[in-house]
Design a protein that fits this description.
A hairpin with a 4-residue loop joins β7 and β8. The protein has 456 residues and is α+β, with helices and mostly antiparallel strands. It has 24 helices and eight strands.
């Protein structure tokens, strides 16, 4: 069986009763995480711009809720808005550091679930399927290090929302195959090096990022098109001209994607972001935080900050011109951590970015590109970074961190705390607690419209 047909069959035939208990629990935590990210993203300038677009163009059909705002817009534009809100702070989730299924599965799934009056069990099933399908497609088409240095991106995200929405639409395996073909057609180009790259070419970074809301909407539209009777475009993932080739990869490994399908649930490998920034910055953030806390490092005592990292040529931005620049700036991540800045939507305001103490630390930060760490990332999805804090008293503090090996524990308690911080500016404490409880018992909810009504 082709990869496309195997994943389409899996997506159309898997039921809630097929899911292991731990996968269901992870799906609930993933939902809480993305809902929190959407509420935090709603408080940003970029998030509100996306909401404005969705309300202007989608207001004619009040079908699904924009999180944080409360307005009801057409289902595609609710997916567009909520998909973008989930990524506005770059605080979502990852699997194997290469795919971000949460924003697409949750935004599309909540929208369809609210519009069609579906249950929490149906949503959880769709979310797990979206994670499995998109992660396995991503693993099947990781480029070689040589190719990735030239062309790289994350074009597979429309499959997450297509699989999730397709399951909620109860597509057959043939219909799901069609939906995958349309999702492949609607996918964005591999534009990461025009998204962030050599500073002279790319700053300010485009604030649409990689079109996260667009790809969420694209996958939803692909599934709906298949439901309405579109035909053709079968087996889009497979063969010499399959999606991997369309997306400019030079490798296709379907066996890697099919290994353990239905038994080895990859949603268990989810990595929740512990800092609102690009995932590759996180080991350096964690190393810096450990050093600051263990040695009570004070910003005025720091002589230099040095980070050795993969992608050093891409992340070395010591003069971020806007919030997205700052989210992708490794110097900004470590400098703001030395300053003990709270991990809230306020981290990326103009005032926070222009602060004199931060600017001074940015000027004393150095990034060193580690080519061997590049290889570890591209071939093995390991992120290795070393932080050295040289103090004015002559001491040198050093910490090397490798993710996922050295990731800190990050479970329910941490995600609930993160949710409270992100949602505080939109929802009061009592209602935040109610939302946490509702998502924690999502499998008992009969109508997802009840949950949507609380999320603003």
């Amino acid at each position: 069986m082709s990869l496309t047909r195997a994943l389409a069959t899996f997506a159309s035939e898997t039921s809630f009763d097929d899911l292991p208990d731990d996968a269901v629990e992870v799906a609930k935590l993933a939902t809480l995480n993305i809902v929190g990210c959407c509420l935090g993203g709603y408080q940003t300038r970029i998030g509100r711009l996306h909401v404005e677009i969705a309300k202007d163009y989608g207001a004619g059909l009040p079908q699904a809720t924009i999180l944080g705002d409360g307005a009801k817009v057409s289902l595609p534009f609710a997916a567009y808005a909520n998909g973008n809100l989930g990524f506005a702070l770059d605080y979502e989730d990852m699997v194997f550091a290469v795919v971000h299924p949460g924003f697409a599965t949750v935004a599309a799934g909540l929208g369809v679930g609210e519009h069609d009056g579906l249950s929490g069990r149906q949503l959880l099933t769709a979310i797990v399927i979206g994670y499995e399908v998109s992660t396995r497609i991503a693993l099947s088409m990781q480029p070689s290090p040589a190719r990735a240095r030239r062309v790289w991106g994350q074009q597979f995200h429309p499959f997450a929302s297509a699989a999730a929405a397709g399951r909620l639409f109860e597509l057959t395996s043939e219909g799901m195959n069609v939906a995958f073909g349309i999702a492949a057609t609607y996918a964005t180009v591999p534009s990461v090096y025009k998204y962030f790259g050599p500073v002279r070419d790319t700053r300010p970074i485009r604030e649409a990022k990689q079109g996260w809301g667009w790809v969420c909407m694209a996958g939803l539209m692909a599934a709906d098109s298949a439901r309405r009777g579109f035909r053709g475009g079968l087996d889009a993932l497979d063969g010499d001209f399959g999606f991997w080739s369309m997306a400019s990869s030079d490798r296709f490994e379907p066996a890697r994607a099919l290994a353990g399908l239905g038994d080895d649930w990859l949603i268990r490998e989810i990595e929740y972001k512990i800092h609102p920034s690009i995932g590759i910055n996180h080991p350096a953030y964690w190393a810096t935080r450990q050093l600051v806390e263990e040695h009570d490092v004070r910003p005025n005592l720091v002589d230099t900050l040095t980070v050795t990292t993969p992608w050093g040529n891409l992340l070395d931005d010591r003069a971020p011109a806007g919030p997205v620049d700052a989210q992708f700036s490794l110097p900004f991540t470590v400098a703001s951590t030395v300053l003990r800045r709270p991990l809230s939507p306020a981290l990326y305001t103009d005032a926070a970015r222009d602060d004199c103490a931060l600017q001074a630390l940015l000027g004393r930060t150095r990034v060193i590109h580690d080519a061997e760490a590049d290889r570890a990332f591209y071939d093995e999805q390991r992120i290795i970074q070393t932080v050295v804090i040289a103090l004015r008293d002559g001491r040198s503090l050093e910490r090397s961190i490798e993710f996922p090996r050295d990731r800190p524990p990050y479970g329910r308690a941490e995600l609930e705390a993160k949710f409270h911080v992100l949602a505080e500016g939109v929802i009061d404490e009592t209602r935040r607690a109610d939302i946490i409880d509702a998502i924690g018992s999502l499998e008992t909810l009969s109508d997802l419209g009840e949950l949507a009504a609380q999320l603003h």
